[in-house]
Amino acid sequence: MKQQTLPISQFKARCLRLLEELAERGETIVVTKHGRPIAKVTSFRSELPPLKGRWAGQAKTKGDIVYFDTSSEWEALR
Predict the structure, then answer these.
(1) Do residues 5 and 30 touch, judged by C-beta distance below 8 A?
(2) Among 8, 24, 42, 53, which residue is least crowded by beta carbons within 10 Å?
(3) pLDDT tens-digit series, residues 41-58
(4) Minimal CA–CA distance to 41: which of 51, 53, 27, 52?
């Protein structure tokens, strides 16, 4: 992933166009003030791992998940 450094004045002047380009290319922009980094702007898409299938094989179903009997746990039902 490519990284670009810009002074805050340039970022402010071209903000909307920079954000559109960022989303298309998946780049990162480091915004500086007086030469010191103050913010990192990155594509939302590039930071998130894919969610589909992420938990596959991590959980197991034990018993009936629709009907379960808890009557033995209630004192009033004994």
Answers:
(1) yes
(2) 53
(3) 988 765 567 777 877 888
(4) 27
CATH number at residue 10: 3.40.1620.10
According to DSSP, the β-strands at 36-42 and 28-33 are antiparallel
Is 72 domain-assigned? no
Total residues found in the chain within this entry: 78
Domain coverage including residue 33: 1-48
69: phi > 0 → left, psi -120 to 50 → alpha, else beta; which? Answer: beta
pTM beyond cutoff 0.85: no
Helix (H, G, I), strand (E, B) or coil at 29: strand
Beta bridge partners of 2: none
